[in-house]
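Q: Hi! First time doing this. I have a protein sequence and I read that you can turn it into a structure. Is that right? Here it is:
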Amino acid sequence: MRAPRALRLQDVAERAGVSLATASRALSGRDGVSSGVAERVREVARDMGYVANPHARSLAGGSTPSVGLVVHEISDPYFAEIATGVMRVGDREGLTVQVCHTGRDPDREVAQIRALTANRVGRIIIAGSGFVDAAVQRETRRALDDYRATGGRVAVIGRHHLSADAVLPDNRDGARSMVEHLLSLGHRRLAIVAGSRLLTTVADRLAGATETLTEHGLDPASMPVIEAEFTRRGGKEAARRVLDEHPDVTAILALNDDMAIGVLSALRGAGVDVPRDVSVAGFDDIGVAQDLAPSLTTVRLPMTSIGEIALSLTLQEPAARPRRRTTGHELVIRDSTGAPRP
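A: Yes, that's right. Below is the predicted 3D structure, encoded as structure tokens:
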């Protein structure tokens, strides 16, 4: 005979007709719940025989020495450098960091958050682009709300639609700086290679690029935007398409450095000289960018610092409203960009 399932806080919340967060506050005696509602929840809990999980209460005190870091692609140096920052602060604070990989799949992201919640981590950091359509992240928001109801703390990196403390990379202005640089060299036939426009990071960087073209009297519609995987392989595929479909292009802006590496590889394989024939620029300034041949012109984001800031936010007491931290950027000009041929 199967043993009966243990009662959960969610069972109490459903019986009392309140949210999971309200039930948690009522049973822990925290503010934000009227006395009448709190008493009803406690009465339901007594009637059901529910006993609060002491570990969940320890989460609120920050005593659980573990952090869940959820990233899109652990092989992408962008996320590896963010993880370095998280681990640096974790080591200093005596926290263990568990890294989870989603492959930019919203359902897998939810599953990872649920697993981290079940594993009773004290803090969760979500790193990487969200989605332009807020509805895609509805289940992620719900999973994080349930997690925070137990006292867990959350910070996000590069997300627009999740109500949590956030570190926001300077994507829009960084793209503006790069396009300004390419235009200052004399380029007018630009192409962009990018991940899916459904990603907010891509949308923000594209917005900065198109705004700059408009300000210079150029038609953004004349600039090819080639979508592919937001990876090195995607960069190769996109560069081949640029060469085949837009042979007059004199500069390619890849919206992350991983794609830019793929672009350089494809151009080299096609016998295209960089930057004499085509200039190439990236975004992020991952560690290997300066060691490529030619070295990569790119937009530097302080990725290790981004990870440090994100975890530091979860070490602070929760604020009444989500805190926002912006990062700034730096244009790093190297050998992969130059003036177009006359």
